[in-house]
Amino acid sequence: MSNPERLEVSLSEYGYRMEIDLGKWDCSREEAHWHLCKNGRRIGQISAYGVWASKPSDVSSAIIREAEALTSQYSSEIIRVYNYNRLHGAD
Q: In what order do the strands lie in the sheet with 33-38?
């Protein structure tokens, strides 16, 4: 039975949060990253090293800066959880 680890962090503006992939397949095919979400929908993706794979154009610069700051702050944790989910994530 799979037991993925979650990493979710809310941003200061209501409805926005950062979340990491939970599936083994997702975590095995890409470098460590997490997603910017709005109201539960993924709208952007940034690597643990701060590089945007998909940067939303319709989000305020304040949200983008906060997502980048959280990524820098949680970089080691993003990598750790991502590597854990490569082995123990959801099937």
A: 8-10, 16-19, 33-38, 41-47, 52-54
50's tokens: 């701060």
pLDDT in tens, the chain (91 residues): 578 999 999 999 999 999 999 999 888 899 999 999 999 999 999 999 999 999 999 999 999 999 999 999 999 999 999 999 999 988 8
Rounded Cα distance between 76 and 39, Å, is 26
Give CA 76 to chain center in angstroms: 12
The answer, as to whether pTM is greater than 0.90, is yes
